[in-house]
Amino acid sequence: MSDTMASGALQRISELEVDDSGVKNPGVLENEVFRALCLQFEFESSKLSSSGLLNALQALVTLQIDPQSSLMASLLSESEERLGKGQLTVENLCALGESLLELENPNCAMLEEIVNHMQEKDIEKWTPREIVMVYKILQVTARERKQYQNLLNRLNSVTLPAVSQLSPNFASVVLNSLVVLCQTQTVALVTALCKHSAEHVPYFTDCELVNVLDAFLYFGHREQSFTEALETHVPKSILTMHPQTVCKVMQYCCKKVILSKPIFDAVAESFISNADRLTTDQIAGYIIPFGTLNYLPPSASSLFRKLETVLHTRLSHFQPHTLLNLLHSCVLIQRYPLNFLPKIFSPYFLQKLQDIEIKLDEEGFVLPVAQCEEVHKRIALCVDGQNRFCANSHNLLGEEAIKQRHLQLLGYEVVQVIYRFTYA
């Protein structure tokens, strides 16, 4: 069997046997035909065409073959040798780059060499796939941003006229790369990608949509057509959307101060149905924007009844600041959490929020932290950093001052340590 046919067979197996959850039937890797194909590639790697070599490597990476196995070591070694000799075409470089990026610990030296070879090619003739692959490699290799900034400038310029050709996946990858690589100066490219993304909202995967929303937030961009697309898409798809994606949509609305009733109403209904399956951070992500934007959905009574039930059963699971932000958002829309106030103002809860607590006995000796008996005095040591004061002032912010007043009411002697002294 020719290497082209053999690599084609491996690729077909990878297409049939791998889905989003991984290899569907691990037993296929023990199949005699599959093992025979693998042996052919392992022991004849030097005789393979570059296309056959790299197509086989891609298929085996997809099938999650151990990168440390002798088979993968042979293919990677042969690929590295041909890369070093400059024997790979742009398409070959692209295939190799994609395979390396899928590995858990990619060989950064090989990735950098791929980028160096790609720079020698005519960048104006790169296909969208090649453009996207280089962006992805630069995310991994461009530790020193200035090292590749000239290449990035060229890449950004070439990508701009090609935006309309980008698939939903490619558009998401490029936006994510621009965020990771801190390309804040690429205003025209970001604007074009954001407009283009509005057309693809129904076709993004959850992960892709999160990347796009992160880019909107990072670059501070706002696109009315994108918001309108979300308003159509989210109510239709919310039952199948991952909770983290829903949280990101709500964060987008909150940060952009966009009160989208179709989105908020759909999220409220989703919370009522699925709250028991959400993490505490996801619960906060669903609910806090309602208070921030001062909106009560039509299902408000059911929504807050469900929230109260969840809080009764899982209150201790919340991080203190997350819980405070959640309850504060309820107050903003006149849903007062009276049933939970005693727990919020307990010494234990306040200690978790801001305390270094020191316990003294009657003679002034420090007691163990866990000791609760024979405590004569409790001292709350408040280390107040610059972010707890008004700018250029010793005046504590209101929320910080009230914490200290509450501690005093609970019997603590509050000792304030100012930020500047801790670094003297």
Structure report:
This protein is mainly α and 424 residues long. 60% of the residues lie in helices and 5% in strands. The protein has 20 helices and five strands. The chain has a three-stranded mixed β-sheet with strand order 3-4-5, covered by helices on one side. The protein has a two-stranded antiparallel sheet with strand order 1-2. β1 (18-19) and β2 (22-23) form a beta hairpin. The chain is elongated and about 85 Å long.
Radius of gyration: 28 Å
Percent helix, as a range, is 55-70%
Straight-line distance between termini: 75 Å
Largest sheet: 3 strands, mixed
Order of helices and strands: HEEHHHHHHHHHHHHHHHHHHEEHE
Number of helices: 20
Q: How do the strands line up in the largest sheet?
A: 3-4-5
- Poorly predicted regions are none
- Shape summary: elongated
What class, by secondary structure content?
mainly alpha
Mean pLDDT over the full residue set:
85
Strand content: 5-15%
Tell me the total number of β-strands: 5
